[in-house]
Fold these 2 entries.
Entry 1:
Amino acid sequence: MKLIIALLCLVLSSGLYFFASKPAKNKITGTVIILNGPSGSGKSSIQKEFQKLMMPHIWVRVGIDSLFDAVMPEITPENLSYWQSNNNLRWIEESQDQANNKVITLFVGPEGEKVAYAMNSAIAAYAQNGCNVIVDYIAYDQAWLKDLEEKLKNFKTYYVAVKISLETLEQREEARGTSPKGHARSHYHS
């Protein structure tokens, strides 16, 4: 992880740009780093360490947890059954893969899609207002990623794949207890 953070710092300070979109002309805008990877892969830890390394320059830390999950209605024991069946917001379904491993898949309904696209707009708004942004992202749906790419096309943007072995990821998922076992497996390859 420290190697990834060091490379990000080196790239940003050296002016070398790879996999970057074009910056907007004649306007001071922020730079955006999209960290895409499965839940539990270390994206939030990378964000926090990157912020520390870049001080005193601010890098706004946002992502799927703060701009998508946190704004949704709360999931409680009393309403859990609602979140386990098809609805307009989002729900999960439990299944098994070919090796009989538990898989918990997130599905997003039309109201939830609005939130996902608004999340992308918020990321772009930070950059438009001159903020540098490092984003914890999960491309649950490739349409979300296409929308994000379109909204960020005028900003210097880096897309970084945060990779981890599935075995290590599932060990982290179990130790953290922040999402049900099998959730990370459902979007490991996205």
Entry 2:
Amino acid sequence: MFAFIVRRLIGLVVVLFAITVLTFLIFFATPGVDPSRQLAGRNPDPATIAAVKHQFGLDRPLPVRYALMMKRLFISRDLVSYGNQALKVVPAITSAAPVDFSLVIGAAVLWVIGSVVMGVLAVTFKGSIIDPLLMILALIGISMPVFWLGEVVNLVTQDRLHDTFLFSWVPPLGYTPLTQDP
């Protein structure tokens, strides 16, 4: 049993290492893409590009760049996203984690309840005309992109029909923690 756990842990480390290397190569070693130009913003001058290359170590060999990136990610935690503003990545992710987890838990509860209801209905009406209709509905639900479905549900329940008696219990657009009333 101990050997099995050790093999699994070694496999976990190898897979995580492979994923980090592959991700690093996609973003920082793709031919024809200069990450320093992307990090420097719109229409950067050559001095800004050189400064960004030096700051992020992009003027060093590829293994050194990988080591610097992993150090920034796991040790110093000072990754910066340069878009409209310089944004610290790790604090932004950790501050959004409670919101993400509550949304995932809420979606999982709805998914389980919906799945159980659909399963009970399919068993109850097995062999009738309702059975294939439930199968088609389940197939559509599985095939539909979740982000699109979420936007459509938001538009219907929180915008257009929010004032009706059917959806008045749905909170308005925005996030409200589970510990607070909407």
